Amino acid sequence: MTLIDPKLAAERAGRWGVRGTAAATIAARLAFERVSHDYDGVPSVLDVSLTVEPGEVLCLLGHSGCGKTTLLRLAAGIERQSAGRVLINEREVGGPSRFLPPEKRGIGLMFQDYALFPHLSIIDNVMFGLRAMARDDARREALSALSRVGLGGYAEDYPHALSGGEQQRVALARAIAPRPGVLLMDEPFSGLDRRLRDSVRDETLSVLRETRATCILVTHDPEEAMRMGDRIALMRKGAITQLGTADELYNRPADLFVARFFSELNEIEGVAGEGDVETVFGRYSAPGVKAGDKIDVSLRPQGIILGEPGEGRAGRVVRRRFVGEVDLIDLAVEGLDHEIKARIRDGGRFAVGMDVGIRVDERDVLVFKRDES
Ligand SMILES: Nc1ncnc2c1ncn2[C@@H]1O[C@H](COP(=O)(O)OP(=O)(O)OP(=O)(O)O)[C@@H](O)[C@H]1O
Questions:
Q1: How far is CA 124 from the centre of its chain?
Q2: CB of 229 closer than 6 A to ligand 1?
Q3: Which residues form the ABC transporter domain (predicted)?
Q4: Model confidence at 2, in pLDDT bands (50, 70, 90)?
Q5: What local confidence, expressed as pLDDT, does residue 373 receive?
Q6: Which of 89, 176, 236, 257 has its CA 20 to 30 A from that of 133?
Q7: What span, in angstroms and rounded, lies between the C-alpha atoms of 318 and 302?
Q8: Distance (Å, rounded) from C-alpha 51 to C-alpha 231?
Q9: CATH 3.40.50.300: does it fit domain 6-251?
Q10: In what order do the strands lie in the sheet with 239-244?
Q11: CA 106: distance to chain centroid?
């Protein structure tokens, strides 16, 4: 009978290593103090102040070109800011009085393309950040990091022999092996196909928790930011628009931009009263709003409730598409000159042309004073 080493078998099946075995680090506090940056006079980061607490995973979220990568590069010391300071554990690493290069900042970096050296074996790639150690010690640390990501059995292979998902795990092992106090990750999952992405995110998060490193993770995907981040910093045009937990950004968005980022929205007319707003679906509380204010009222499609005619505002089903867990239903609404969209579970019972009554869950109504700046 052949005995199969269960660890190797798991690795061959593409599994990650044993949870709880990643080496822990001493997490650092990373702070940006009024940091600005430009590329040859064109501003990219504008007056950003932000503190990432020890052991925290902070997601920098935003559309392409809003300055996320630049902010990460400023933390790493790959770019130099035009104003402000970067501090690690209250010590200035980038600012008027000194500027430390990346290798002196005690940070780990992980890029979107993994940036593995093709001519080095997997173990040598991981040992690259451990050159300051004695070779035997470096090899032991590198193997331990590789085992944690389930790739100890591939140490002598070369990157081209690995799948995209496996290369991502090597890049993670290389980033954590030197036990950095701060880990900076730029879109680390964007090269993976959807099927893999969820499990890789979960495994990566559990590795991050074990290492206890402070982490900034750049992403343009709101769902990824909500899954991964203790807090999210949403960026727009080089500045932070809102900083908070996923719950805060989703349920108490600072403005329409933030709300639109996290959900598709139906934007409808509303008439402002004193502390409330009147719409075709009824009156909603809107603290701080005064009669005469210009306002934007938005309804999340998942908050639209359909019932029998007479149960709420009169409407008619115009279109219906099944998209997996829900049906997307377009509705004509009495008194509105444009259709609205609803996401309905078991929506198959609503046929095109059917008359319905429409109500809205108040939790999915968002009211903002219009920003006319
Ligand atoms: N090396 C560069 N030279 C000149 N301009 C640059 C350079 N790198 C970025 N920019 C510009 O700076 C702004 C911020 O870019 P940055 O890459 O930080 O944004 P991002 O949010 O990370 O975008 P993406 O998600 O597309 O990477 C953009 O307008 C971009 O075009």
A1: 31
A2: no
A3: 30-262
A4: very low
A5: 62
A6: 89
A7: 17
A8: 11
A9: yes
A10: 107-110, 182-186, 214-219, 57-61, 231-236, 239-244
A11: 23
Question: 39 alpha carbon to ligand 1 midpoint, in Å?
Answer: 9
Q: Residue 173, exposed/middle/buried by CB under 10 A (0-12, 13-18, 19+)? A: buried
CA of 240 to the centre of ligand 1 (A): 15
Helix (H) or strand (E) holding 276: strand 276-279
* Polymer length of the chain: 373
Domain boundaries, the chain: 6-251, 263-369
Residue 220 near ligand 1, beta carbon < 6 Å? yes
User: Which residue matches tokens 């108490």?
Assistant: 252
Helices (H) and strands (E) in the chain, counts: 9, 21
Residues 118-149: tens digit of each pLDDT: 999 999 999 998 888 888 999 999 999 999 89
The mean predicted confidence, pLDDT, of the chain is 90
pLDDT for residue 235 is more than 50 = yes
Cβ–ligand 1 distance for 64 under 6 Å, the answer yes
CA of residue 71 to ligand 1 center, whole Å: 10
User: How far, in Å, CA of 179 to CA of 221, rounded?
Assistant: 27
The complex's ipTM works out to: 0.96
Alpha-carbon span 25 to 214, nearest angstrom: 9
Is residue 19 a contact partner of residue 151, using CB atoms and an 8 Å limit?
A: no
Report whether 110 contacts 171 (CB < 8 A).
yes
CA–CA dist 349, 335 (Å, integer)? 24
CATH class of the domain defined by 263-369: mainly beta
To the nearest 10°, the Cα dihedral for 67, 72, 74, 75? 150
pLDDT at 233: 98
104-113, 203-212, 328-337: range with highest mean pLDDT: 328-337
CA of 186 from ligand 1 middle (Å) equals 13
Tell me which of 21 and 82 has the higher pLDDT: 82
3-state secondary structure of 148: helix
C-alpha span between 250 and 226 (Å, rounded): 9
Q: Whose CA is nearest to atom 28 of ligand 1?
A: 65
